[in-house]
Design a protein that fits this description.
heterodimer, A: alpha+beta, Immunoglobulin-like, 4 domains, seven-stranded antiparallel β-sheet, four-stranded antiparallel β-sheet, B: 299 residues, alpha/beta, Rossmann fold, 2 domains, 9 helices, elongated
Chain lengths: 516, 299
């Protein structure tokens, strides 16, 4: 214990400028965060340059600099007793590696975790949330920062001799990440499936912990560096070898007779898509699907789909799993499935009718625990959300401050004709029987990773039935009745749909013209 | 006699280069043991293996009865280590260094610390980065002596130091020689000779000889033979004759197994009766130079 305290005091004395800088940035973050709460973007944008600088540029800068200052502090303190090389005075002194590691951990806890924790408590209190009610979430945030940021930073610091070496390492890591991002775009289905993300995260944490352990207990830098190289290779292998299609297939089993949905491909005339055409060299296709059979108090989410085109010459094209994220309620009659294909490939199919095979992945929810809520004027507590008030920015909405994470799962439904907002942005008054909704699926963990535990969260209502002729919702204003509910997952299924002799150009965005 | 350091067939390879090729060494307790050899001989490598700074490729090494590979933590509280190229915490003041190190050593002697600081004339309040190289070495040595180590390991401690500082360091060491074993590597043989009790000669990773200094200096002699006419040199000359040279009627060589009667007999056998025979004692430096030049096994 004596040794821990001795090393800790030495580090605190040596690194006080970095500590002060980090704490100053933390204080600046807290001040800016509090002063930007509820500040509408329109107000900031319309302000003088100094206003924009203070409330838009500076918070962005501090948001980046603060984590960097933590990483820098961790790197400096780890490299204070460098684990690389054989000339450091301390390696022949009676250091106990466990106590050295404990001293470094204590330093990080004292000058990074603890100040962040205190600031988070302060921000919660300032936002009107009792901090002691959110201790588990706050600790969860600390754990996420520690495992996902501080531990990897310590691992990299432990295998580098000094800051220039570390920067070189960081550059290599950045290049690797760019390469991985590019690779994930090429690997089919990988972006749709979340499978592999968890194992990759666990691999990262385990490797970082192993590197720190190896370096502190044995100072085997070569082995530690090989571990990191091994992690890089393992992540590539996870990306390349994960059987995404099989995993998705098992996650979305083929629908049976009891699946409450009838789907059919509508004619291209029903195509009223809000989907914007893709960029140069890409053909964007929208397939309107008529929907029926969704039971009351239920809704579905079209998570993704695979489109397979086959023409009479036997040419075949498969889109792989692509995200959709469209919601289907009882009031939805048409859902639009969108996909992009390379213009060159599209050109091979466009001249003749094609057979289309759709594989659609759905998640079914039970709209549970419905209760009414009339929006009060001024600031109010919205159950399960946080502190909210009406706001008018890009439309009438609720601006909310939520502690730790966005609400999950929460569905807010409002009959568009019941809105109390003035009708200024629509041509006609909405007719009864049409609904607008806002759905939130926040993180399932007790908190989202972030510096501040107070999240700004805007609730905008939108219609799920995009293809209807109904005017958009006037929004949420004081007096507007809302139905709050908690969607409960019922199950996932995949549905197959076959349509032959379809003319691709009719369904192409941009009136059937090639996008150039 | 118990040994402070014992190595057996110690090998250390860096990729394809063998820095140590089967080093076997015994350093008796209480000795002032000098490991000498030319640059690149493997002295620093040997010391780094002994101090568990690097790992041996094969063989074994024991320091104070403990396998050197297990030398860490509190075991190091009995060993003082100073190296010419050690990276010190230069942001610390000299006093700060002592304050920081003190709690690590259960046997730290504050009186001895004060005595060493005074003896070495160390400026307590100056940062290590702002003191001279000699002063840094003295600070490193003082901070390695203040806890009465059983073993003091010094790797080229005198390199680049002025004579005054060398004397101060040697004086400081000798005053503690009774309570410690001192293991020092150096190629500053003039200094080593003044205080070493044992000497080992390492060349190209191999130990050429290791013995007490008195024994070494007594068995090496510079021999000068004068003849009336230039003699023919014996081919081959005896193994214990090194650097045999002839200049007109004078033959010179270094005898590395000097024994007055035997050496004289060997000379007569090789040359007949010379006009005169002169045996001159050799300094350690001269012995080292002859060894380095001849590269022959004199053991």
């Amino acid at each position: 214990m004596n040794q821990i305290w001795n090393i800790f005091r030495k580090d605190a004395r040596h690194h006080w400028p970095e500590i002060v800088a980090s704490l100053a940035l933390l204080a600046a973050f807290a001040w800016l965060d509090i002063h930007t709460w509820g500040l509408p973007n329109e107000v900031v944008a319309a302000g003088a340059f100094s206003f924009v600088l203070l409330f838009r540029i500076l918070p962005g800068l501090v948001n980046v600099l603060l984590p960097l200052s933590w990483i820098f502090l961790i790197v400096r303190v780890v490299q204070g007793e460098s684990l690389v090389g054989d000339r450091q005075f301390w390696v022949t002194r009676p250091y106990d590696w466990r106590l050295l590691l404990a001293a470094k951990t204590l330093f990080v806890v004292a000058f990074v975790n603890l100040p962040l924790f205190c600031m988070d408590m302060f921000l919660l209190a300032q936002a009107g949330f009792h901090p002691t009610h959110y201790l588990v979430g706050l600790l969860c945030m600390q754990l996420m920062w520690t495992l996902l940021m501080f531990l990897p930073a310590a691992a990299v610091a432990s295998i580098t001799r000094n800051i220039p070496q570390l920067l070189l390492g960081a550059l290599l890591i950045a290049l690797y990440m760019v390469g991985m991002a590019a690779l994930s775009q090429v690997v089919p289905n990988s972006s749709f499936s979340g499978n592999g993300d968890e194992s990759s995260g666990l691999l990262l944490i385990a490797t970082a912990a192993a590197v720190v352990f190896v370096q502190y207990s044995r100072r085997r830098t070569a082995l530690a560096r090989w571990l990191i190289a091994g992690l890089c290779v393992a992540l590539i292998l996870v990306l390349l070898l994960t059987p995404y299609r099989s995993l998705i297939a098992s996650e979305y089993p083929a629908s049976k007779g009891d699946f409450p949905l009838q789907l059919a491909l509508s004619s291209a005339e029903n195509n009223k898509s809000n989907y914007f055409p893709g960029h140069y060299g890409v053909a964007s296709i929208t397939l309107p699907l008529s929907v029926s059979g969704i039971p009351k108090d239920s809704f579905l989410e079209l998570d993704g789909m695979i489109v397979t085109l086959t023409n009479s010459a036997g040419l075949r094209w498969d889109s792989g799993w692509q995200f959709q994220a469209r919601y289907l309620g009882t009031d939805v009659s048409v859902v639009e499935a969108n996909f992009d294909m390379k213009q060159k490939i599209f050109d091979q199919f466009k001249s003749a009718p094609v057979n289309v095979h759709l594989l659609l992945a759905f998640t079914q929810y039970h709209d549970k625990n419905q209760r009414q809520f009339i929006v009060p004027s001024g600031e109010f507590n919205l159950p399960e959300v946080g502190r909210c008030s009406s706001k008018m920015e890009y439309g009438h909405a609720l601006g909310c401050q939520v502690p730790l994470r966005r609400p999950t799962p929460l569905l807010i439904t409002s009959e568009t004709s019941a809105s109390t907002c003035p009708i200024t942005r629509v041509d006609t008054k909405p007719t009864p029987g049409h609904f607008a909704r806002s759905i939130s699926f926040g993180e399932s963990e007790p908190a989202e990773m972030g510096i501040s535990p107070v999240h700004q969260f805007d609730l905008y209502l939108s219609a799920w039935d995009w293809a209807s002729h109904e005017p958009m919702s006037p929004g949420i204003c004081p007096g507007t009745p809302l139905i709050l509910s908690n969607p409960e997952l019922i199950g996932r299924s995949r549905v197959e749909l076959q349509h032959d002799n379809l003319s691709p150009t009719e369904y192409q965005q941009g009136s059937g013209k090639t996008i150039q | 006699m118990t040994t402070a350091i014992h190595t057996f067939n110690l090998v250390k390879s860096f990729r394809k280069v063998d820095a140590l090729k089967g080093l076997t060494l015994n350093v008796p307790e209480g000795a002032v043991y000098a490991l000498v050899g030319p640059n690149g001989a493997g002295k620093t490598t040997a010391i780094k293996v002994l101090m568990n700074i690097i790992r041996a490729s094969s063989g074994s090494a024991e320091v104070l009865g403990v396998a050197s590979s297990r030398l860490r933590g509190l075991l190091l509280a009995a060993i003082g280590y100073v190296s010419e190229n050690q990276q010190m915490p230069e942001w610390m003041t000299v006093g700060g260094l002592f304050d920081y190190l003190r709690p690590f050593y259960p046997a730290w002697d504050t009186k001895l610390e004060a005595q060493l600081i005074e003896q070495f004339d160390l400026p307590r309040n100056r940062k290590l980065r702002h003191v001279s190289r000699g002063m840094r070495m003295k600070a490193a040595l003082a901070s390695s002596l203040a806890y009465h180590p059983k073993l003091v390991v010094l790797d080229e401690p005198f390199t680049g130091l002025d004579p005054l500082v060398r004397d101060e360091l040697i004086q400081g060491l000798l005053e503690r020689a009774e309570e410690s074993t001192i293991f020092v590597s150096s190629h500053d043989l003039g200094e080593i000779e003044t205080f070493a009790s044992h000497v080992a000669y390492l060349e190209a990773g191999q130990l050429r000889f290791a013995e007490e200094l008195t024994s070494l200096t007594s068995r090496f002699r510079e021999v000068e033979l004068a003849f009336d006419v230039p003699p023919a040199l014996p081919q081959p000359s005896p193994k214990n004759w090194l650097q045999v040279t002839a200049s007109a009627a004078v033959v010179r060589f270094t005898e590395c197994r000097f024994d007055p009667e035997r050496t004289a007999f060997e000379i007569r056998t090789a040359f007949g009766e010379p006009r005169s025979i002169t045996f001159s004692p050799m300094s350690l430096r001269s012995i080292f130079l002859v060894m380095a030049k001849s590269g022959r096994d004199s053991a």
